[in-house]
Amino acid sequence: MASDKRSVLVFDFGASSGRAMLCTLENGKISMNEVHRFSNDPVMVHGTFYWDILRLFHEIKQGIVKANNAAGFESIGIDTWGVDFGLIGTGGELLENPVNYRDKRTSGILPKVFEMISADELYSATGIEIMEINTAFQLLAVKLSESGLLDRTQKMLLMPDLFNYLLTGEMHSELSIASTTSLLDAESKEWSDKVINALGLPRNIFADIIQPGEKAGMLTKELAEELCVPVCPVTAVCGHDTQCAAAAVPSEEENTIFISCGTWSLFGTETDKAVVTPLSAGYNITNETGYGKKTTFLKNIIGLWFVQETRRFLAKQGQEYSFADLEKLARESELFRCFIDPSAPEFVPPGDIPERVREYCRRTGQYVPETLGEVMRCIYESLAMKYRQSLEEISECTGLSYDRIYMVGGGIKDTFLCGLAACACGCTVSAGPVEATAYGNAAIQLISLGAVSGIDEARRIIRNSENIRLFAPENTGEWDKAYEAYKGVLGK
How far is 91 from 470, CA to CA, in rounded Å? Predict the structure, then answer.
């Protein structure tokens, strides 16, 4: 491989699909070749919602083979969604398929948590938004189930750490993914003994923490022989896809607001240290840790899950709609008829999203959308209003103002949402790159290999590699009036 051409293999897992991207740095730009794409389909078995981990590992193997046959690579890096995990037994075996965060096992668990540790104490220790799906509460649910699983557990490995283990045989916890758990101390960036002890979890199941950019291990010889590929390092990139995306935000300003837009919309800013105050606790804003131990101060917002799950549900009823079809129906419907709170818990589980939207509107005394287009319009506008609410809350907590929002990720293919975000927030939206997570993953690997000097150079390379699209706000007076109506709905 020529010295001025460096290639790395990126695996980027979302909640509905995954892909293997061969990323090549050459002449100051990163080019991407998607060598393998696959569906990520959770499986319901006897009432439990599992991730199909062995199928996903099979797809990783296929991606490695295809990338090696295409051009070869120097390193492998894996990022995934947050909070979910696998339990490794004392013999190194996977004790059960990882359970999906949308499973019902944590429903109603928070009152039990708060008997052990108060919400204020939990947030003060970890700085993490309190949601039923958090790893800490999933582990408590396992403990309360009296299954004995935790007694047989050697290590708990979050999803990217689990895939790294399957590739290398080594067990670590990468910092960024560990920060999603509600079990990491916000200041020390180590496991919080205070929270672990309060919940009665076994301390020994938590693996040593490594930093993004460190080597997670080497591809095992057995696996290399099976796949007919060279042994290479597996780099612990930011295992949480949000933090890979944050590393790739192509901003030049010192203070930046971004939205990592996909199944979830992660709306936040980068700070030097965690913002853990009564105000941030009241707004339930989370403090995750990214590359270089930077804090990402952000809101977790259910994003295009609404559109994805609506499409899936309708397909089960024999009604086939493309994403473009649903967007078109929304565009053609009347503005500002009704709103939902995208963070309401009833929208988290899979199922009939359109009917849940109607029921929310009915319960809050609003116009009840009749057509599918009206439902979609309600969803899109409510997401844009949630962005504005998050912008105001983060600005209040940081004491800073932001005049541009950087939207990155696959969700920005939905230009309708980008335009609505600009209108709702009253500022310019800079959209791109679509492949932010893959860029961030690749950049961290390239930094680790010494091919890129650091994160500032990486962001400069990403800016040079992409065409960025701008969206200007329109009709701000009408949106201001509608925002007041949206806030009124939240109080009901």
Answer: 53
